[in-house]
């Protein structure tokens, strides 16, 4: 459509006009230069049924601003207990390596193990605890998130989102999504009650403690956004957004490393040179590892995890490039058109870490790198996610060689087509201890 109609055009979902922005210039102009006007969340009726406008992902206005600011501060602050988030990620990377050792170099599908690690990092940040990879409650939680990502990308949910009246009256998989979320929310509520009983205002252990302290500070404010309902919704959002996305990126990343063994070898050589064998990789290493940094960026650019972003909406009538967009109109920003721009990234359909390296082999930043979106609604967990991807991938490659079950040339890296997110095909590999 953009080839015919240019970078700004309208499509209809059901009876609703939706404005699509295509290409770096249009996306940047809207989300950065007109950030405030484009900072609304477009409608996603199935999700609204779950959180009723609370939380961080699907809220709007003052409610969204306050919860977002608080969440950013708390995640950034590292002031959660005595340990920094980086410590927690490193600990989890070590546990991940131990778990991979147990596969005894036999072929395995890495989906489950790679899901546990990011999920545990979120558990550590939110609940102040990590789970054993065999823990039944933990497995149930992961199963619910897994199933929901799959269902939210199904055709039926797209129909429900466009004709929301169906949600209340018809049977179908949307009810399963709602049931899964109800399970997660009841689990979160149990944890919140435990936290309330053992809360020490001077020593917050995790995200829930920080939120409870804020609730206490604002208890006389009738208009306060810091309520138990909002805490449940926010924690559920942080979980849903922070678990599946990172684990899918890791899984897709390992598949690409299997397909391009020459890339993997160069990363391992750099790890060997900079980190060695006797300590865990840390974030300080990244500035000395331009090739590895480029590979992590290229994985995210290439897989294009959330191709059309989450829907935005304009918060007022906006004049944009000679068009008048009425308040409340849903806006879809094509992240694919930015990440796969052929001027910025020659041969964008090729996996090539050189997209992020200059002539001398130094890491090269790009404004077009926006897998986390950009502007006022960019991903709150971006810092955490980037840390996890770097530390998990380097720690895995420090400890294991990856062995494919098929000839690398024959590895299929086409995603199992998906609407909301792109999911890699199932595959098996062997983790051979170094």
Automatic annotation (TrEMBL):
Cofactor(s) this protein requires: heme
Domain of life of the organism encoding this protein: Eukaryota
Signal sequence, start to end: none
Topology of this chain in the membrane: Peripheral membrane protein
EC number: 1.14.14.1
GO cellular component, one term: plasma membrane
Annotated residues for binding of heme: 379
Classification via CDD domains: CYP2C-like (cd20665)
Assigned keywords, A-Z: Endoplasmic reticulum, Heme, Iron, Membrane, Metal-binding, Microsome, Monooxygenase, Oxidoreductase
Gene Ontology terms describing biological process: retinoic acid metabolic process; xenobiotic metabolic process
Family according to the record: Belongs to the cytochrome P450 family.
Protein name per Swiss-Prot or TrEMBL: unspecific monooxygenase
Lineage: Eukaryota, Metazoa, Chordata, Craniata, Vertebrata
